[in-house]
Design a protein that fits this description.
200 residues, alpha/beta, Rossmann fold
Length: 200
């Protein structure tokens, strides 16, 4: 790949000051070339989202990351509002809505629950990817390439060493996706980007 794909991290954490997980992950990718971290709660403390500005940001980037904790099997409210307002009919989808066509998008999520709890026979009864279907369908409707999530499980009990290793994995995922030619079909057969990068 001749040029680095520009990456926009749409970060949404209402209690970021208390999050060692996301602070670590962001720290590992913040210096990567072409990466812009856009903290929605910091930028819009009163939830007054600037639609045109957000659309311009999307147009300037090739890869979009919805980065957030797993709140009630979904995302914090500001990210839902961002989706509702920014991805307008006639711009992101629908008739003549082709502005995001071909861009790549995925979720980076943390959750207190262990991985085994997100199984059909686990505590939550469904897999993570089943819970993320609305995000997948949103991406598909906007003609974007949706990748599996990067997921951090057991956030309440994770050790510093484990967290550091996950931060390095996240760094490697972003670096590889932005700086190398990737095969979408190969990535999409994995449940998590964590698994894909480990098996590379």
């Amino acid at each position: 790949m001749d040029t680095i794909q520009r990456t926009l991290v749409l970060f949404a954490h209402p209690r970021f000051e208390n999050s060692r997980i996301h602070a670590n992950l962001l720290n590992h990718i913040s210096q990567l070339p072409g990466v812009r971290i856009h903290d929605l709660y910091e930028y819009y403390p009163e939830f007054n989202i600037d639609i045109k500005f957000e659309q311009e940001l999307l147009l300037e980037h090739d890869i979009i990351i919805w980065m957030h904790p797993f709140y009630w099997y979904s995302a914090p409210p500001i990210l839902k509002q961002w989706i509702d307002l920014v991805l307008e009919h006639g711009w992101a989808y629908g008739k003549n809505g082709n502005e995001l066509k071909g861009k790549t998008i995925f979720n980076c999520i943390s959750s207190g629950g262990p991985r085994e709890s997100y199984q059909k026979d686990g505590f939550h009864n469904y897999t993570v990817n089943e819970f993320l279907r609305p995000f997948e369908r949103t991406a598909t409707l906007c003609q974007m390439n949706y990748l599996p999530p990067f997921f951090v499980h057991g956030s309440h009990k994770i050790s510093d060493e484990e967290l550091e290793n996950l931060g390095k994995l996240y760094h490697d995922v972003i670096k590889k996706i932005t700086q190398e030619i990737i095969i979408l079909s190969e990535i999409q057969q994995y449940d998590y980007l964590n698994d894909w990068i480990v098996n590379r």
